[in-house]
Design goal:
Mean pLDDT of chain A: 81
Number of domains of chain C: 1
Number of strands of chain A: 0
Strand content of chain C: under 5%
Radius of gyration of chain A: 23 Å
Largest interface: A-B, 41 and 47 residues
Largest sheet of chain C: none
Largest sheet of chain A: none
Shape of chain A: rod-shaped
Structural class of chain C: mainly alpha
Shape of chain C: elongated
Oligomer: heterotrimer
Radius of gyration of chain C: 18 Å
Chains: A mainly alpha, B mainly alpha, C mainly alpha
Number of strands of chain C: 0
Number of helices of chain C: 9
Mean pLDDT of chain C: 89
Number of helices of chain A: 2
Distance between the termini of chain C: 25 Å
Order of helices and strands of chain C: HHHHHHHHH
Low-confidence stretches of chain A: 58-64
């Protein structure tokens, strides 16, 4: 299956909107989730730093 | 130890945290490689479909996402069951770490399903049995996450979430059967998804590769989320403090 | 065993009769929601006849869910729930009693009123009968599955909305077979298949859900 030119490739036989619409939204969602994971990690580390600095460091791990 | 390998070693959040940390890059790498291969198959190897010309290429995202959303829900329920049975906190954390990725993939499958439905059936949303069950699966994910968010005490949140996940997984086949029954009764003019374009080998291959890529991605995402959850939950324990000093 | 269920049942019914208002609010909610649809969709009798079964069923489902909150809330607040859990008898027994009481208070009135609404939608004799039978088989399942949601969200802020998010997806098979039964009866296809499936869901739910509810209560109480 060879596309004659890039423009034909992006034209996708007239269905460009549908095909690229779904692929683009999926890419955006996955990138969004990776971003979300990164901020979640940063917030967790900050919370740990604050707890280590101020909170009591003991063996009770289930404090709400 | 009689079997030489102590599985419980990895049940402790501390050891699992470092293990997960080492594994995540590999899973992200595998996901990227597989995704590239899958896309190459999808766009350059797979022939033009005589019926739907190019629109069918959406299948290479829609079907793997649908498979994965169902698979992740089952894995989530499995972790929930293990957590309730062995009382291991980490299993509950894995279940809550998987839910957002599962919900996202369910939404992807619904979105791509709609965009694929428009050119093929002429309607954005078709009450096809599988699309409808996918929508209900999305509600099950939302219910799980909403319940866990509403409960402050992590211990109760884990167990309540685990129970609703198990109740959900028992209901998924019943829901699918009843929706399929309902769909065949009110069979509209739309051709159902079962008569998908003739499954040339290359198409199936492309979908399998994309499904594997989605699987690797889901593992990587869940592992990195579970690490953040471990940090939040274990922030008061000794090993986290030591790790912080080691890092600082 | 039966004797305990009996005792709990009687207690619940006495309590429910003391605040009879709740029973009526569920009933009025059911009637109001059902009569909203014609106002929204238009008075065309042919259309309403087609929609009748579905609308009555959806309204019954929402009405049953409305009263789930009360199932455990008052006992949870004044501590009787903890005492009940501590009793030697397995919790499944008195939970079944409570769910049965909830069904009698919130399910049965719906069944009694449903034919009147059915007539309002122009359902014929046979369809009305099937509607009542399907509700008779379906509403207990709504109480059984709803009890799981109620037990899980005990004492949570925003519990009401949360229960609906948890429980509605699980109600969908009951809705499909219930409304399908009425639709089957009207279109002459016959509703036996739907009613038998509804019956099997009822048996399945009756056996399994009390265990899930007792597990949920134990989780929420600790």
């Amino acid at each position: 299956m060879s596309w004659n030119s890039w423009t034909e490739f992006f034209h996708m036989g007239g269905y460009a909107f549908y095909v690229w619409g779904s692929y683009a939204v999926t890419a955006v969602l996955i990138a969004g989730e990776i971003l979300l994971l990164r901020t979640h990690r940063r917030k967790a580390l900050e919370l740990v730093r604050r707890t280590v600095k101020y909170g009591k460091v003991g063996n009770n791990e289930e404090t709400a | 130890m009689m079997n030489g390998f102590n599985w419980y070693k990895y049940a402790s959040p501390a050891t699992f945290y470092t293990l997960a940390g080492r594994l995540i890059p590999w899973f992200y790498g595998a996901a990227a490689v597989l995704c590239a291969a899958g896309l190459y198959i999808a766009f350059f190897l797979a022939p033009t479909d005589f019926q739907q010309s190019e629109a069918y290429r959406i299948i290479f995202i829609h079907v793997p996402a649908a498979w994965m959303s169902m698979f992740i829900y089952i894995v989530m329920a499995a972790w929930a069951a293990i957590g309730l049975a062995f009382n291991t906190r980490l299993s509950f954390m894995m279940a809550s770490a998987l839910a957002p990725t599962g919900a996202m993939l369910t939404f992807v499958s619904l979105w791509t399903g709609a965009l694929w439905g428009k050119p093929t059936w002429g309607a954005w949303w078709v009450w096809d049995a599988r699309l409808t069950s996918e929508l209900i699966l999305f509600f099950l994910y939302l219910g799980f996450m909403a319940l866990q968010a509403a409960i402050d005490d992590p211990r109760r949140a884990d167990r309540a979430g685990a129970l609703i996940a198990l109740v959900g997984v028992v209901n998924v086949p019943i829901i699918y059967f009843s929706v399929k029954w309902w769909n065949t009764l009110h069979q509209g003019a739309s051709i159902s998804m079962t008569k998908a374009p003739s499954m040339a080998a290359i198409m199936l291959e492309g979908m399998l590769v994309m499904a594997l890529a989605a699987w690797m991605y889901a593992i990587a995402a869940a592992l990195s989320r579970v690490r953040s959850i471990i940090l939040e939950r274990e922030r008061n324990s000794q090993w986290v403090a030591q790790m912080m000093e080691a890092e600082a | 065993m039966l004797q305990i269920v009996n005792v709990v049942l009687r207690r619940e019914l006495i309590l429910a009769m003391r605040r009879r208002g709740d029973v009526l609010t569920v009933l009025f909610f059911f009637v109001i929601v059902a009569s909203l649809f014609p106002l929204g969709v238009g008075p065309d009798p042919k259309l309403l006849r087609l929609m009748g079964g579905g609308v009555v069923w959806v309204s019954a489902l929402l009405a049953a869910m409305l009263s789930l909150g009360r199932l455990f809330a008052s006992d949870y607040a004044d501590g009787t729930l903890e005492q009940l859990i501590l009793t030697p008898t397995p919790p499944v027994v008195w939970i079944t009693g409570k769910i049965l009481a909830h069904w009698l208070v919130s399910g049965v009135p719906l069944i009694l009123v449903a034919p009147i609404l059915g007539v309002q939608f122009g359902l014929s004799g046979e369809a009305l009968l099937v509607l009542v039978v399907s509700l008779l088989l379906g509403t207990p399942v709504l109480s059984l599955i709803g009890a799981i949601g109620a037990a899980l969200t005990l004492g949570l802020r925003g519990g009401g909305v949360l229960v609906s998010l948890l429980v509605l997806p699980l109600y969908i098979p009951v809705l499909i077979f219930g409304a399908g039964a009425v639709d089957g009866a009207m279109s002459g296809l016959g509703a036996e298949a739907h009613l038998s499936l509804l019956g099997s869901i009822l048996i399945l739910a009756f056996i399994l859900t009390p265990w899930a509810v007792s597990a949920a209560l134990r989780i929420s109480i600790e």
